[in-house]
């Protein structure tokens, strides 16, 4: 159906661009209402013409509806029908408008996306008002964001069931890739109205390479990124990380898989359960920073000598040096023992990237994969920028919902 309508634009001074802009802006704000009213009248006229005399006009009723182009106000008729006992709103029934709904599905998704990337729900409301001159309430934006998040969470549960109970494998039609990189980590956000209590959020990223931009090709960007995040513990997160990587990269058939973490035991369990073919790599920055922390700035020179033994793969010298320092530096003894145990338990992980290259000389493996910088950046983007402002507190459900929407909005999940 082609609906024609006239639009009048009132401009104070056609020789002044500021005046023109005000007129166009005012016309744009009126347009959704005018357009919807024209469509309503057209739909009602078609219905009346198809069976003359059967429909009887009753009162007109007003409705307000948020669309992706702005807020629309329109009036539609209530009708009685000789075959029906009750009167009804013909337009609402024909187009499937639910009673009491004031926002279209597309608008709900748009507001949820905006709320997920704005600093807060109230700031999202202000941004809408700046764009359209009016806005729904902060509560309305919050409500629809929660609904979108819950729908996405339900979709994630259905995908986990399809993969781990029904045996479906997404991404199986993707040709095997030479390389897939995976990085995982966790962070914390404050609980709602609880002092010194936190929710743990696991965050992971998967990619299939790096491309370099800039005049000197010095800026590296991960290619085909996909991410996952969960507040439901490492087990659920591991399953969702696997599904995300499998859908995007067919990680199960990749020729080489690199799995980088800070060495947390829960993250190693995820590797064993879902990425068992991957080399577990210990982030070199954590090796370095923990050494400095163990020795303290007073004995920093000793820390650097120890690090030289580690990165040159001299395990015997590392053990001899740190045991000597444990005896020698009484004030640092506890921390040095902790660092010794941390490194010895994960010794082979430190050199996983080197071994991956040696064992696969025919495969192009990206440079600088010795750390988890990409995932730490992802933690900042996904969690820090939206959920860690001063004074913020989150319920588990609220945090999970905003996280689901944020992943979609940033293009990190379907």
Strands side by side in the biggest sheet = 8-5-4-9-10
Q: What is the H/E string?
A: HEEEHHHHEEEEEHEHEHHHHHHH
The number of helical segments is 14
Morphology: elongated
Q: What's the total count of β strands? A: 10
Computed structural class: alpha+beta
Overall average residue pLDDT: 92
Our measurement of the CA-to-CA distance between the termini, rounded to an integer number of angstroms, reads 32 Å
**What level of helicity do the residues show?**
40-55%
What about the largest sheet? 5 strands, mixed
Low-confidence stretches: none
The structural domain count equals 2
Q: If you compute it from the alpha carbons, what radius of gyration comes out, rounded to the nearest whole angstrom?
A: 29 Å
Q: What percent of residues are in strands?
A: 15-25%
